[in-house]
Model the fold of this input.
Amino acid sequence: MRVNRVRLMAATVALTALFVACHGGSVAPPSAALPTPPGGIAARDKITHVVVISEENRTYDDIFGGGFSGGPPIYLGGDGAIPSDIASEIKPGGFNTDVAYNAHDYYRCLQVNNFSATTWGNMKAGVWTQSPQPCPTTGPPYNPDAFAHADRAALTIIDGVHRATYTALANEFEISDAYYAIQDADSFAGHQFIVALRSRNDLGELISGTPTRGGELMSCGSAVGTNDVQTPVLNRTNGFTTWQYEGDTGVCWNGPTFGDALDAAHVSWRHYSTDNTGVFNGFINFRSWYPLTDPNLPGSHFRISINDLYNDINAGDLPQFTWVKPPCIALSDHPGVSHDPFGGSDWVASVVNKIGANQALWQHTVIFVVWDDWGGFYDHKIPPQPGIGLDDGLTPGMRQPFIVISPYDRTPGGVNHDFTTYASVLHFTEELYGIAPLNTLDAYANDLGSFFDFSKQYTPFVSIPYAEPQFDVNTACATYHGIAPYEIDR
Done:
């Protein structure tokens, strides 16, 4: 659906007002926060490259929260103080701390219980003192005790030492403490939203009963049989999930992507994928794009991160828009399979450092660091209610980290408090390159203008130190020990 932007500012005011109402007035109205002209338009004389680096499965508190006895400090200026009624349950850990299979499925249980400390505690213990519905009591066949497992790690947050690289990036650039996932689901849905702002895996799209998708349950291409993976689908009639079988690439469907929009506007783009698995490539779920995701095809938009990314950056060969996925799952921040204990933080810094080392490239680039979903980890903020642009059954999911890296950051080291979602990244890009929005999500999203000051001279780049001084991407990826097909949807 194409949406006219004439109503954009009014819609943004309404959405922000809704967020203020839900959060005690802690967010400034857009008239005070957003510059004129809008951010992407103001960037047109300065920015020619937008880079989106996507990591896996984290919440804001997991990386920037703390402030309790024995825990890491909160990031200064951010809303990351863990409440006292849950602090005793929180324990610090590294990025490789695992959560049980499909911990995302607790979202509905948390939501109907207002994300209370008691419900989080029950989630950790696998013991429910309240009525079990919609709190899960049984798991999928491949892991029937998943929902009752007592040794859960959802209340683990990254300790100060192992979040050091992300803290260094935040100190040098700018973060948000009001960035929320558009949806409440897992990686299948998350990666489709990253490339298309829509998903057939999306829990929020199913209105009632068993979904009917016109035979679209078969995956576009799968290395395993279509019955080897089960993913949760929200049944809005009874309030929780049913399970449906899919291949290891998820559902296959027809729909517009941001790649299509970029092509239509003659904006160059690439997608750097994780090794050769395609696991973190949302384009594999789109029937028209799946056969084109082979990086060996002439003129392909798709390349492999570990082989091509550094070389292209070193050559100054970045397109106008770039999606960057981790070079291997070990550097994705994904729980249970991360390069322990630093996850992908040093790899993210390495990409930023490579771009920053080319000053001609750096002064014309904006980098957004996002995470695909919340991963089942704790965050103390209650997601706001759906508002304009999020009123079609989608609910803002958990709060997530969001880092904006640019030589034109308005407040280096600062924390932006404006309500933001991933749709804002696409909105900024659409304004920059004159692209029509994909749907209401990006049409009415905050355009990130309050993060930037494009009237100033660009800030020369200062290299970000690594938490592991000897960090090497190939060595780190060699630690990759595989991921079972049934874990992919997490």
